[in-house]
Amino acid sequence: MAAVADRELETLAFHARVLAQALREDTPLLERCNFLGIALAGLEEWIAVRLGGLTARLRKEDKLRASGMRTSQVLREAAQRADMLLREADQALYTVLLPLLAKAGVHLARPDAVTPVQMAALSALFHRDMLPHLSILPLEAGLSLSAGAVSLAVRLADDGSGADDEAVVALADLPPLVPLAGGETMLLPVEDAVALNLRCLFPGRQVERCWPFRVLRDSHAVSKEDDPDVRHAVRTAMEKRRQGRVLRVMAHPELPGDIESRLCAALGIEPMRLVRRGYLAAPGRVMKAVAALPGWDSARYAPFAPRLLEPLQGDLFALLEQRDALLCHPFDSFEPVVRLAEAAARDRRTQAILMTLYRTGEPSRVAAALMEAARHGVRVHVWVEPRARMDEERNLRLMDSLAAAGCRVWNGPPGLKVHGKALLVELLEDGVLRRYAHLGTGNYHEETARHYTDFSLLTARPELTDDAARFFQYLRGERERPDLRVLTASPQGMRQELLRLIRLEMGKAEQGRPCGIACMMNALTDPELIQALTDAGRRGVPVDLTVRGACCLIPGLPAETENITVRSVVGRFLEHGRVLAFGGEGQESVFLSSADWMKRSMEQRVELLIPLTDGPARDAALHHLRCRQTDTAGAWINRRGVYNPPCAVGSLKCGAQEVLLAEATSQAPRA
To answer: Is residue 64 scored above 60 in pLDDT?
Structure first.
């Protein structure tokens, strides 16, 4: 059997790699702040979602009188690792980044440093913009606070009236930093801004002191995917998250013991769940806000203009009749994908537009184009996934807007999430039906397309567009199975196809023929696919894996799998694209995939595996894959389960993203 790493610890290891990026001195200062903010957000989300899920699983195993020993061990080890990483992040924040920010002229002010002039302006701002968002709550059993929101535990002087001397002030919907007037950039944490104005909330009482804290709740609750009323299931899951069990309380380091006891009792938790952090109540949000400060471009990565497919001002449909176009975001602009939807909406030849939407921006030009097309009488069918975690509310609103505009809004087949990325346009020209498709690895989200690496295939090839039509027929319930010719979909056949491709390379190795497997993905946790890759390595197949996040395959264990390489690339852009190549060099079969190699992707989601048969498109995808394989600046190499940081220095440093960015900005727009 293959040696398999624990998924939870592997996920935390990825957050550690992001945290390490915040400590790299060759990363611009505000980008380091952004990486720290991302790491902190990721760790807190892991506590809320994954730790909550492990806890729920342990309770279920105990109820069933199963041993639960494995889950209990993972829970303990992972929780300890998460808390250790939070301490390391705090150390990076308070001892490294805040001093560097102050030296650069960005100051996080303390309350005792606020001048009278600044206080007068702050008081006016407080009454105008903050006061409506504050709630005063008693510090007693049943205390209900929003997950992640900043609150203040307040101690009042005893006035002899018998009124409670402690209370909680809950802050909601307020930005993490408040600018102060001054010659340099001076910012005050929002909890301190409120603390300086607390007197007006407790008229007639003297405020002795207050201490900020935040509550992290169990956000593991998911909707029942077999519930026929999807909206009800989603809203029920969202409500459960809002009322989820308290997993952690992130508290000020000087919170007194008696207030701590009352707070824990009010929240119904054991004292061990209260963790004392630094003086910033929401350090991750503060770092992201600092990273977004206007006017500090010299402390950021140099801006760039993505390469633009031409002729965008001409007939995009005519271009696709001639050849495929593979866009590699963010090095290539996402604009052609948006323009395809907009052109279809405005073209009188358009008969139908069919599309899947998992996550979108708000506002979304793609969604606006669909609504415009529907209002013009075009048949528009849209599959919106309301169960996309943390985007449920947005997607429910999107479903309502699309339906109101005349679009036919669908959910996926019962029990399955639709995660495949597909857009199909059908045009009728001189009585001939022509189809054009977009098939990709990323969401139709114009903002994240500027920061995530992803791939978009634009094509008019009949073998692909006809399969896309069959795919949508399956989603509409007109087919029991997709019955695809060149595309492959999960859950019906993707794992089987991947296993077939892996075994094909094993057969080549046994015959002494050129062989190889090279894959780029976000996660590798599926046991059956891990076993197949391990077997391939044992049989002599070179296996090269670039896995951004959790990779449960341990290279080098057993020893005969030394020819399996696993790396994780961390850089300026979030690695999100998925490219798979099977075969010896120069003979590779190349695919894009919407799916990571996870059990849920193979069994509980509708995903797409897309072959690249157009020569230039295939070569471009391979080039991106090879660039990751030669990365020495951002690639962490996994050696027997331990990730080793990039070690190349000086002229030897070669970062895949930097190489691709240089190529994109130095080349003329592609014709």
So the answer is: no
